[in-house]
Amino acid sequence: LTLVELRGLQLTDEHGAKLAAFLAGSACIQELLLSDNLFGQATYLAMAQALRVNTSLQTLYLHGAKPVDQL
User: Fold this and answer.
1) CA-based angle 36:5:65, to the nearest 5?
2) How far apart are the first and last CA of the chain?
Protein backbone atom coordinates (compact mmCIF):
# COMPACT_ATOMS: atom_id res chain seq x y z
CA LEU A 1 0.00 0.00 0.00
CA THR A 2 1.75 3.15 -1.19
CA LEU A 3 -1.18 5.44 -2.05
CA VAL A 4 -4.09 6.42 0.22
CA GLU A 5 -6.78 8.57 -1.42
CA LEU A 6 -9.42 10.09 0.87
CA ARG A 7 -10.38 13.25 -1.03
CA GLY A 8 -13.71 15.01 -0.55
CA LEU A 9 -15.11 12.69 2.11
CA GLN A 10 -16.08 15.37 4.65
CA LEU A 11 -13.44 14.06 7.07
CA THR A 12 -13.09 16.04 10.30
CA ASP A 13 -10.40 16.53 12.95
CA GLU A 14 -11.54 13.30 14.61
CA HIS A 15 -10.61 11.43 11.44
CA GLY A 16 -7.50 13.55 10.98
CA ALA A 17 -6.13 12.53 14.38
CA LYS A 18 -6.57 8.84 13.52
CA LEU A 19 -4.97 9.31 10.11
CA ALA A 20 -2.01 11.11 11.68
CA ALA A 21 -1.52 8.28 14.19
CA PHE A 22 -1.62 5.77 11.33
CA LEU A 23 0.83 7.86 9.31
CA ALA A 24 3.26 8.08 12.22
CA GLY A 25 3.47 4.29 12.38
CA SER A 26 3.44 3.63 8.64
CA ALA A 27 6.57 2.74 6.75
CA CYS A 28 4.94 2.20 3.37
CA ILE A 29 2.60 5.12 2.58
CA GLN A 30 4.28 7.31 -0.03
CA GLU A 31 1.35 9.46 -1.14
CA LEU A 32 -1.58 10.68 0.98
CA LEU A 33 -4.41 12.56 -0.73
CA LEU A 34 -6.62 14.41 1.76
CA SER A 35 -7.90 17.34 -0.31
CA ASP A 36 -11.33 18.92 0.14
CA ASN A 37 -12.11 17.68 3.64
CA LEU A 38 -13.13 19.51 6.83
CA PHE A 39 -9.85 19.40 8.70
CA GLY A 40 -8.90 22.12 11.15
CA GLN A 41 -5.87 23.12 13.14
CA ALA A 42 -5.88 19.95 15.24
CA THR A 43 -5.40 17.80 12.14
CA TYR A 44 -2.66 20.02 10.75
CA LEU A 45 -0.75 19.89 14.04
CA ALA A 46 -1.20 16.11 14.34
CA MET A 47 0.04 15.64 10.76
CA ALA A 48 3.07 17.81 11.48
CA GLN A 49 3.93 15.62 14.45
CA ALA A 50 3.45 12.45 12.39
CA LEU A 51 5.72 13.76 9.65
CA ARG A 52 8.53 14.16 12.17
CA VAL A 53 8.75 10.37 12.54
CA ASN A 54 7.44 9.13 9.19
CA THR A 55 10.21 8.48 6.67
CA SER A 56 8.21 7.05 3.76
CA LEU A 57 5.71 9.79 2.87
CA GLN A 58 6.78 11.79 -0.17
CA THR A 59 3.55 13.63 -1.07
CA LEU A 60 0.75 15.03 1.10
CA TYR A 61 -2.15 16.80 -0.62
CA LEU A 62 -4.37 19.10 1.43
CA HIS A 63 -5.78 21.25 -1.39
CA GLY A 64 -9.10 22.89 -0.64
CA ALA A 65 -8.45 23.07 3.09
CA LYS A 66 -8.68 26.36 4.96
CA PRO A 67 -5.40 27.89 6.08
CA VAL A 68 -4.86 27.56 9.83
CA ASP A 69 -5.18 31.32 10.35
CA GLN A 70 -8.73 31.24 8.91
CA LEU A 71 -10.10 28.59 11.27
Assistant:
1) 20
2) 32
